[in-house]
Amino acid sequence: MSTSSFMTEDFAGAMTEGGAYLQAQSYLELPCSNEDLGNVKKLLIDLSKYAVQIAANFKSILALGASIKHLHPLKFVAAIVLDEENRLRAKGIHDYAFAHKFKGAVQRRIWNQLTRGIELGLKNHDQHNNLLQYLPSFAAQMHCDVESLFRAREVSIQEGSWEPLLIAMNPIFRPSEEKKTK
Predict the structure, then answer these.
(1) What's the chain's Rg over C-alpha atoms?
(2) Residues 7, 22: Cα–Cα separation, whole Å
(3) Are 22 and 133 in contact (CB under 8 A)?
(4) 3-state SS track over the chain
(5) How far is CA 139 from its chain centroid?
(6) Phi, psi of 14 (to 5 degrees)
(7) Disulfide-capable partner of 133 in 2, 10, 22, 115 (CB 3.0 to 4.6 Å)?
(8) CA 130 from centroid of its chain's CA atoms
(9) How far is CA 63 from the centre of its chain?
(10) Cα 96 from Cα 159, distance rounded (Å)
């Protein structure tokens, strides 16, 4: 049975690769405190504000990253996409990184580190059966198609890259205009 054979009518559950049945759970129940949300916001502020001076602020950025390492990647993505200021900051880092061939090198590195961290979190949570059951409620909250998320998850597993799932969650995570056309 395919991993995307999820009962979308009532979000009852999903079958894992090994055939185990997972009960659908609301991603809203995953822990994420106001302090966590504030740290995500501060991290994005620092990344966008200090992108050029990243070396000088590297320790504080690493500390902020460590303070939210426990966050489920779906909560991290939601904290970026559902908060307009965070989304605009992330988009600013992304757009500058890919619009300026030479000046955007630092921002490209920051963007790539940010998305790689999310992708690694998605992979790790999926390997520990801690992702699939949250996708339906996540999709509802993010206003995206749950079946697209399941298809993108399968592609991510096949390709060994979690970028397809991240992009399916929100196009803001698309790395560049060039990749869109490929």
Answers:
(1) 17
(2) 11
(3) yes
(4) CCCCCCCCCCCCEEECCCCCEEECCCHHHCCCCHHHHHHHHHHHHHHHHCCCCHHHHHHHHHHHHHHCCCCCHHHHHHHHHCCHHHHHHHHHHHHHHHHCCCCCHHHHHHHHHHHHHHHHHHHHHHHCCCCHHHHHHHHHHHCCCHHHHHHHHHHHHHHCCCHHHHHHHCHHHCCCHHHHCC
(5) 13
(6) -145, 155
(7) 22
(8) 14
(9) 20
(10) 28
pLDDT tens digits, residue range 109-147?
A: 778 888 898 999 999 999 999 999 999 999 999 999 999
Q: How confident is the model at residue 7 (pLDDT cuts 50, 70, 90)?
A: very low
Query: 28 φ, ψ to 5°?
Result: -65, -20
Is pTM beyond 0.85 here? no
Q: What six digits make up the tokens of 56?
A: 């000088």
CA distance 32 to 55: 29
Q: What is the pLDDT of residue 14?
A: 55
